[in-house]
Each structure stands twice: as structure tokens, then as C-alpha cells.
Amino acid sequence: MSNTESMSKRFEILDCAIELFRKEGYSNVTINQICAAANVSKTTFYYYYKSKDSLIADFYSKTNYNVKEQLLSILSADNELDQLWNICDMYIQPISDAGPEIVRELYINNMKKDVLAIAPRDIYMKDVMITLMKRAKSSGKIQNPASAEELYETLVYLIDGVAFIWATKNGGFDILAESRKVFDTLLVTQIE
């Protein structure tokens, strides 16, 4: 099996599990149900994942993979701010699609394992985002006087905060709209 086929199968299992979690609730779904939905044996499941927790921990791997695959499309936007937002959107949209219960499980999983897949240093597109911020600052599109590195970290923390509050409020507001608001407040609002 090629690496691409292996990745495809892994993400297929993940997608089936996420859909089951959304319908039935994370704690109500068994590995047997995931295997049936993904049409794989338990052996195949355990080849890719050690447990449901390891499966949910893979959520951001799929997001990173999708961002990497769409990078040319993302960077085809007219300006650096649009490109930055496109990257942010590609991280936020899967969270919105997965739903608040799954996002809560992602946070719990991160805390249990002392892994911060959502921390600024762990974002796959960190260097690209910082480069885009530097360019936007040079061209005057970002007037915030903080460094590109500080802006990047602050943006990640702000959007993570929006996702956390959205998950704890059971999805009670539009996560994309609120994330866009913090993006615009930090990067687009004119500094006087």
C-alpha cells in the first residue's frame, strides 16, 4: 500500500468516526461501530489507531494535510490578508463541521496527553503565515506595530479561544464569523 493510499484509508476511518461522533456522541460510539461504518476490520483500525483517543488526536493531521494540498489555491488570493484568512478558514471550517462535542474531545485529548496540536508553534502553516504577515506589514495592509511573529501567535491564541468558547457554549454562535471578527480586529483595523 502506498503512502497516499495509507493516508487515504486513515482519513476515511477518521471521517466515518467523526460522522458517527456527531450523530451518536463521542462516548456512545464504539470501535466496532467505527469499523462497520468505515467498512474495515478491527485489525485495520488498530493498524492506523490505537484507540478512539488516538483517532480524535489525528483530526488536525487531516486538516494540515488538506491545507498543504490546497496551498496553491490558498495563495492565489489577491492579497496577503485574504491569503491569511484562507489559511485560517481552512483550520476553522473543519472544527465548525465537526461540531462542538468533537471539539471538546479534541481539547480534552490535548490536555490528557499534554499535546497542544493547536498551539502556535504546532500549526503546520506557521512559517507561511508569518511570511504573509511580514509582507502585509511591509505593504501597509497590516498596521499593527507588533512583529509578524507576535501577531501570528496572538492570532492563533485568539482563534483557539473562539473555538474553545464555541465548544463550551455548545456551538451557540457562528464560529467562522467570530473568528473573522478577531482576525479583522487584530490585523485589519487601522491603528491611529
UniProtKB/TrEMBL annotation:
**UniProt cross-references to SUPFAM superfamilies, sorted A to Z:** Homeodomain-like (SSF46689), Tetracyclin repressor-like, C-terminal domain (SSF48498)
Q: Does the keyword DNA-binding apply?
A: yes
Specify the HTH tetR-type domain's residue ranges.
7-67
DNA-binding region of this protein: 30-49
Q: Has UniProt tagged this entry with the keyword DNA-binding?
A: yes
Q: Where are the transmembrane segments?
A: none
Q: Which UniProt keywords apply?
A: DNA-binding
Name the InterPro entries on file.
Homeodomain-like_sf, HTH-type_Tx_Regulator, HTH_TetR, Tet_transcr_reg_TetR-rel_C_sf
PROSITE patterns attached to this UniProt entry? HTH_TETR_2 (PS50977)
One Gene Ontology molecular-function label:
DNA binding
Top-level lineage group: Bacteria
Q: What is this protein called?
A: HTH tetR-type domain-containing protein
**Source species:** Youngiibacter fragilis 232.1
